[in-house]
Description:
The N and C termini lie far apart (170 Å). The protein is rod-shaped. With 818 residues, it is mostly helical. It is 76% helix and 1% strand. It contains 28 helices and 4 strands. The strands form 2 sheets. A two-stranded antiparallel sheet has the order 1-2. The chain has 4 domains: 53-160; 190-235 and 281-412, no CATH class; 430-599, Tetracycline Repressor, domain 2; 620-781, Up-down Bundle (Methane Monooxygenase Hydroxylase, Chain G, domain 1), CATH 1.20.58.670.
Amino acid sequence: xxxxxxxxxxxxxxxxxxxxxxxxxxxxxxxxxxxxxxxxxxxxxxxxxxxxxxxxxxxxxxxxxxxxxxxxxxxxxxxxxxxxxxxxxxxxxxxxxxxxxxxxxxxxxxxxxxxxxxxxxxxxxxxxxxxxxxxxxxxxxxxxxxxxxxxxxxxxxxxxxxxxxxxxxxxxxxxxxxxxxxxxxxxxxxxxxxxxxxxxxxxxxxxxxxxxxxxxxxxxxxxxxxxxxxxxxxxxxxxxxxxxxxxxxxxxxxxxxxxxxxxxxxxxxxxxxxxxxxxxxxxxxxxxxxxxxxxxxxxxxxxxxxxxxxxxxxxxxxxxxxxxxxxxxxxxxxxxxxxxxxxxxxxxxxxxxxxxxxxxxxxxxxxxxxxxxxxxxxxxxxxxxxxxxxxxxxxxxxxxxxxxxxxxxxxxxxxxxxxxxxxxxxxxxxxxxxxxxxxxxxxxxxxxxxxxxxxxxxxxxxxxxxxxxxxxxxxxxxxxxxxxxxxxxxxxxxxxxxxxxxxxxxxxxxxxxxxxxxxxxxxxxxxxxxxxxxxxxxxxxxxxxxxxxxxxxxxxxxxxxxxxxxxxxxxxxxxxxxxxxxxxxxxxxxxxxxxxxxxxxxxxxxxxxxxxxxxxxxxxxxxxxxxxxxxxxxxxxxxxxxxxxxxxxxxxxxxxxxxxxxxxxxxxxxxxxxxxxxxxxxxxxxxxxxxxxxxxxxxxxxxxxxxxxxxxxxxxxxxxxxxxxxxxxxxxxxxxxxxxxxxxxxxxxxxxxxxxxxxxxxxxxxxxxxxxxxxxxxxxxxxxxxxxxxxxxxxxxxxxxxxxxxxxxxxxxxxxxx
Length: 818
C-alpha cells in the first residue's frame, strides 16, 4: 500500500482541483496525520501551496456562510431563551435566599445530630475495635493459658507433661497467633525450656543412680530374705508330703521329723505374717526419675542418648559393686554385704527391664550378668581360699545358695555358681579335715590309754549308746568291770559322726540327688579316715612318750574302731537312704586305715622293745680279761629278762573276741617276742665282735656263756604262748654254736664238717670264728692264756695257728666266691 503522501502526489498529477479537495477533506477528517498531507502539498509542485491556500480560503468562506445561515436560523430562539433566563433570574435569587436560609436552619438543626452521629461513629468504631480485640484475645487466651500451664508444670517438675504441652503449643496454638510478637518470644523460649528439662531430668537421673547405689544392699537383702523364706516354706511343705508318703525325713540331717504338721503350721503362720511386711523393689526405690527421664528423652527424640548414658553409668556401678573389700574373707558380714549389693543391682535392672521398653534389654542384662558372674566367681574363688574356719566356709556356702536362688528367681542363669560350690566344697572338706585333726589330737592327748572302767549299768549303757560295742561275755560279768578300749575310742567314733554331719551340711540345697550326696559323704569320710585320722594315729604312735603299754592299747583301740566302720556305713545309709548294695556306692576305707595304724603300732612296739633291749645291753660291764667266770649270769641280763617277761604279759590284754582277733593278737605277741630275742641275740653277738674289743679271755667267754644260757632258758619258758617246739630258742642258735665251738674247742669237727648241711656248727661263720679267735690269741705279754699253752703244749699252739690259717683260707674263699 502506498503512503498518504504518495497518494496526494498522484492525485495532484491527475487533477489538481480534485486533489486539493481531497487534501482538504483529509485535513477535516482528523483521522490521518496532517503533516504528511501538508508536506505533499508543498513538495509536489512549485507554487502549489498558493493554490492550496486559495482552495483553503474558498473552503473557509463556504463554512462561514453555512455558520451564518445556521446562526440566523437559531437567533430568535436564542433571544427568547435569554429573555426567559432573565425572567428566571429574579426567581433564582429568591430561591437562592430561601435555599441559603434553609441551609442555615438545616445546618443549625444538624449540628447536634452531627455531634451525636460522630459519637455514634466513635462508639461504633470502639465497638468494632472491642469486638476485634475480643476475637483476638479469644484466639490468644488458649495460647496464654497453655503457656501458663507449661510454666506451672515446669515449676511442679511435671516435665513430661510440660513437653507434651510444648508439642500442643507448637502444633496447634502458635500457628493461630504466629503474627504476634509475644508468640515469637514464646517460640524462641521453648528450645531453652527443653534444654532445661533435659538437664533437670538428667540431674534427677544422676541422683536416682546414686540413690540406688546406696540402697542396693537394702534391696538385695530384702530380695534374698524373701527368697529364703520362700525356700523354707517350700522345703517344709515338701517334707510334709514325704512324711505322708512314708519317707523318713531328717531335720537338720539328724532327727527324724515327727512334728512336720507343727513345723508346717508355723511356716504358714510366718508366711502370713510376712505377707503384710513383704516389700517390693518399688517400695524401696522410687523409679519415677527413670520413667520420667526416659519419657522426656523419648519425646525429645533423643532416646538413644539416654539409653547409652544409663547403660554406661550402670556398668560403672556394676564394676564398683563387683569390687570386694580386701578383708571380705574375714567375716560372713563382708560376704553378705557383697552379695546383697550385687543382688540389689540386678533386681533393679530386672525391674527396669520389665517396666520399660528398650531402655534395658534381655541381651544387655545377660551380657552384664555374664560379665558379673565371671568376676564374682573369680572373687569368691580368691577370697574363699583364705578361709580356714569351716563354719565361715559353711556360712559362705549358704550365702551363695541364697544368692543363686534369688537371682535364679529373677531369670538369671546360676549353674556356674553351683559348679563353684563344688570347688568350695572341697575346700570346706579340707578345713573340716584340719579342724578334726586338731580334735583328734586333743582326744589322743587327753586319753590315758587304759581300759575304760565301768562301775554301773548306767555308765555301761551310756557308753554303748555312743559307741557300737558288743561283747556277750563282758555283759555277763558283774560290775565293776572294764571295757577293753580306752576313752578315746567312743570319742573318735562320735567325732567321725560329727564330721559326717558337718560334711552333710554343705551338701544341703545344692540341688543334688541322694546318690550324689551319699557319694560325697563317703568320699569325705574316707579322707577323714585315711588321711586325717590315719596321720594323727601315726604321729601318736611315733611320739616318744608313748610307751609299750600305750602302744598295746592303741592296737586294741584301732581294732574296735575298725569293727565300728560298718556302723558308720549304716549311719550314712540311714541319712541318704542309699543302700550299700548299690553298684556305684563308695565303700569306707576304715579297715585299711586302722590296719595300717595297727601295723605301725606293732612295728613301733618292736622298735621300742629293741630300743629298750639296747638300753639294758648298754649297761653290760664285762671284764673281758677275767680268768674265771662269776658262776652266775650278769645282773643287767637278768633285769632285761624280767622286763621282757612283764612286757609280754601285757600282750595278754590284746583283743581275742573272735578267732581272727585271737590269731592276730597271738601273732603280734609272737612277733614281738621273736623280734626281741633276735635283737638280743644280735646285740650279744655284736658285743663279742666289737672292733674296739681287742682281747677276750676264756673266763670271759664262759661268763658270756652263762648269760646266753639264761636267754635260752627264757626262750624255752614260753613267755608268749603259741610257739612250736624250740622255735624261739633258734633265735640264739648262732651264739650257742659259736660259744660251744670255743668252749669245747672242737675245731677239727668244725673244719671237717664245714659246708655240710648236717654240720654241728652250721650257723658259725668262718669270719666270725676268726674274729673271736684272734681276740683270744696271745698278742701281748699280758696274755697268759696262750702262754700256758706254750708252756704246757706247744703242739696246741701250732694247732691254733693252723686253725687260724684255715679259717682265713675259708674267709678268702668266701670272698672270692662272692
